[in-house]
Amino acid sequence: MNVVIAIDSFKGSLTSLETGEKIKDGVLLAWPEAAVAVRPLADGGEGTVEALTLGMDGVLETVRVTGPLGRPVTCTYGLVERGSEKLAVIEMSGAAGITLVSPEERNPLHTTTYGVGEVILDAIEKGCRKFLLGIGGSATNDGGTGMLQALGFGLLDREGNPVSPGAKGLEQLVSITDAGVNPLLKMCSFRIACDVSNPLCGPRGCSAVYGPQKGADAAMIRQMDEWLSRYAALCPQADPNFPGAGAAGGLGFAFQAFTNAVLEPGADIVLDETGLEEYIQGADIVVTGEGRLDSQTVMGKAPAAVACLAKKYGKTVLAFSGCVTEDARACNQAGIDAYFPILRRPSTLEEAMVKEAAGRNLRDTAEQVFRLVNACKGF
């Protein structure tokens, strides 16, 4: 029997690969002769860098960059060699994420994506020309202008001076030049993991929808939306209404307008980059899951993407999770044939999330499930 495991991390407890290895241990306890392959899984958000980089035999790089408030932060990204190509795996939140800003300091008028551009430049200097970049969890609403400045674009005010950091700089912006851009940027391609469909401006735009969680009040939202609209008018090469243009405070729009970029669902990018389809074709059973299975799992999350791919080849799909909700039955309709919560005795959330306990529960639950599979001799 061939088993392919592609399971998302149990956030705060186990990484994607750690989760997969614990399930593998359980499968082999029940069926020692089974062939089991563990593949990394993520959706472009938190944990993507580690899951993909380590799962694809890459290395983790660290670089000191400008944080969202201008203070230095250390950002970790992945570098994966594939033949003659080098792929950089980056989470923008590592350089400009909302978790880097205390609630008291959150103010999108001043937070910048400058550090994201610095990470990209570091990867370019290390030979990367292919980029996979997750843009969730931002603290910014600057339309990606900070990133563009770091890459060498001139974002200038009426006097020809660089505009200020943050969304406030958009108020000053009157022209954009590319005279100082690193020429290697034209040789780079970007796959942007983007799981929101918001346009740049308007009632569903980044300012209105995501501004409040970044510290914006109603007056700031109106101002930023107007400034972003004027910014878009300076960039006729990109569509501000394109789904995802408003992702990460307009960072999606900046990638569209000034780089060779494609915005795609994060899980789809990860499945493609890791070559999961090839593994699934030879599998008898596909195992997936995440920390919590619920109706949201089917809304573009990684386990649902795995199940969809597996059903393309008629494979049986099992899922494991830390917990399930009553509405998790939607997962069955999305291609997960059966799912199993792993808690084996009453415990608090804190107890259940201890790494050793979660790993033991995963292994033991997987063992019992695959003892049943083995007894049924269905494969």
UniProtKB/TrEMBL annotation:
It holds the Pfam family Gly_kinase. GO terms for molecular function: glycerate kinase activity. GO terms for biological process: organic acid phosphorylation. InterPro entries: Glyc_kinase_flavodox-like_fold, Glycerate_kinase, Glycerate_kinase_RE-like, Glycerate_kinase_sf. It comes from the Bacteria. Keywords: Kinase, Transferase. Belongs to the glycerate kinase type-1 family. This is Glycerate kinase.
